[in-house]
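Q: What would this complex look like in 3D?
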Amino acid sequence: MATQTQTEIEIERAREPNGNATVEAALNRRYEAGFVTDIESESLPPGLDEGVVRAISARKNEPEWMTEWRLAAFRHWLTMTPPHWAKLEIEPIDFQAISYFSQPKNRPKSLDEVDPKLLETYDKLGVPLHERARLAGVAVDAVFDSVSVGTTFRKELAAAGVIFCSISEAVREHPELVRKYLGSVVPTGDNYFAALNSAVFSDGSFVFVPKGVRCPMELSTYFRINARDTGQFERTLLIAEEGASVSYLEGCTAPMRDENQLHAAVVELVALDDATIKYSTVQNWYPGDENGVGGIYNFVTKRGDCRGARSKISWTQVETGSAITWKYPSCVLRGDESVGEFNSVALTHHRQQADTGTKMIHIGRNTKSKIVSKGISAGRGQNTYRGLVKVEKGADGARNHTQCDSLLIGKKCGAHTFPYIEVKNPGAIVEHEATTSKISEDQLFYCRSRGIGEEDAVSMIVDGFCKQVFKELPMEFAVEAKKLLEVSLEGAVG
Amino acid sequence: MSALLESLLGERAAPAALAGVREAAIAALRERGLPGPRDEAWKYTSLRALEQRRYADGDCGARMRAIDVGFLPGPSAARLVFVNGIHREDLSEVGAVTGLDIERLGERPDELAAILRSAPPVDAFGELNAALALDGVRVRVAAGARIQAPVQIVHVGTPADGDVAWSLRVQVELGDGAQLRLIEHHVGSAPNANLGSIVAAYRLGARARLDLIQLQDGAEGAGLFRRSDAVLGSDAIFDLHTVEVGAQLARHDLVVALEGRGARLRSRGVFALRGRQHADTRLAVTHAARDTACDIAWRGVADQRSRGVFHGAITVAAGADGADAQLSNKNLLLSAQAEIDTQPVLEIHADEVKAAHGATVGQLDERALFYLRSRGLPLDLARRMLVAAFCGAVLDDLEPALRARVDALLAARLPQAEATP
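A: Here is my prediction, written as structure tokens for the whole assembly.
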């Protein structure tokens, strides 16, 4: 079966240049072959109550404890109120108007129905044709690539002892691991959106790297089964045991066409003694149009727990999409000598808003953290860095350095910095520095005088501004991220 | 409603002219209540310790007592002394200086009411101040007048028959091109648990220059809530030195609006805390016009079980192109029971801007300590020298007599002998 799939992929790859028809044919064939569950029948009507939570749990054949876990989260969620402290303008969200287990409604039937502007963007990004169809949300569940690739690599991973599967699968097949770790980093009642996610999460990834194993390849949502439809309420749980190391890439590297909808994911990372986790995100959800109509509300709780001594968790994110981005990938540095890192590029254009940053909680001795945040605001975009560096009493020798720089392109955008520094240990050294400026006229002039067009010059300068973060990304992601910035900044100058 | 508010807002005698503005403030305060830990602006400062306290009216017999405090050295154009929020004629000296007009607001309730009405309170302590203020001072400098000797306003906290709550207003108005040096000195004659509230407004006309020195050495055990609100006209210069070493619980909201083109703020500040002191300084600077500048450098030291909080926010409004904003906040944490919370904030809505801020929390440089000890200095002295130098770095341009006084104040607060490691 696996070999067959492999061959099919090769055939499809060979056919790619032939255009839409071939891709669709291939996709349709796959659909008939029953690789994909019939989506329409899975949808639940809008609204949220215990029945819906039970229905989601039942639909996923979850054991009783999981259902109860969800219900407890749901009951807690009912007692909470949406937070309002972020520097964001958000239309109130009607949580009863959302379908908690659904697919986007009017999906285009073929690439011809997809917004030409979007296709143009794909073109510029150099996204392969079959992926374009998939990413545009054409009404075939274009997981063919993932299924095959997933199964191929799965063997290799299994040989190394790594478990990489969807979280629903993990709940069924590795309940002992899920029970032990799920909610141990982000408790169900942690915050409003985390509680909501805990109650209704649809799917997500589960990664377990056992003791002493260095994951043989970079894991990515690309390789994941049903990546396409894990949609709104993803739940990711990643565990690296003693001495293990893993690099995980997430996100959509090309725009996902979607309506103004809520994406409330939770990501939990656990690193035991000497373990290393590198988590990279390139987020490019639909940002809404020039006038701020539509776009994703990306409200995500991401937290890593450096539970073991000498463990290391590193977050790298490139955020260019979403109408509103509201997330703070954090590190709880519990283990002695553990290390947390956060590298971020956030770009807001048109009417996008981003309130993002990190939290570094130093609890263990000689813990270190480093924060590099680069914010770029263009158009009417509002970009906020919000970060917390907290040094608890016992964190002798804790060390933090934070650098956050903002670049302004245009008269109507905004760049804001809200760092919180709380130190309770006299042995700690915490440093924060931030700058805000526009693109230097001198640099622009220099580039222009060398015959470089204004837009290209801006793009080069922005790339240089972000270099520090891009170099933390895996190679192919870095290339993509750079292109993504170029595309996202189009029309920002002149 | 906390017992605190009940006791503060009970029946109090006040001139008829103040009745209207008081009632409005009381109603607003009852509606709002005191801020709690979920208020972002009060995240690090808890009022819980105050909540069960009860306070008597201001003054309360203090007027009758002899006051023994050391006033600042040097000549002054005028010295106004307030004891527990009430003016003391016998301690004040006001001479006639051309271009300088000083009015005691306690004698002019109409004027006080007008001032209270002209700046409606924006927070609970502003409302509390408006509800309780009985006295205050208005200092006006005529356009073009340059007052050479400084004006001193001294706030003395002293024990009374019970714990008292006092409030007063300070209004400083500088006409176009006027210049003034103003020293605000908070001092305690003896430990007390009084609750003081001061709302001060500074209005600087075009090209005016105000050198303001705020020396807060309030009485041990006292609570002090201050708001300093400055508005600068075009090309005005506001040079501010703030030293916070006194009081048990001190909160200072320092709000500066650079409203005229080319207005500039230079702010230097130090806090040095020990024991169980808690000082929360909240600085907010708004660049509202073109080519405005601010240069802010604050240092903080927290020893023993104290807690130092610094919030430094710079906002550049849309259209305020050419703004140049710099803020630096460095802190020394000297004890495992002390805490420093610092939050430098930038909010930028214009693009022709240079803005930067930096904040650090750390401890004394081991190498510097080692160097001093290798030269034969005992550890204790070496530490004190380094801490004094750390604080002094932002006070270099104070005039020598004042600087000596501030140094002595700081030295008294800085680490005492500690077991040699």
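A: To summarize the key features: Chain A is about 30% helix and 25% strand. The longest strand of chain A covers residues 368-378.
Q: Very helpful, thank you.
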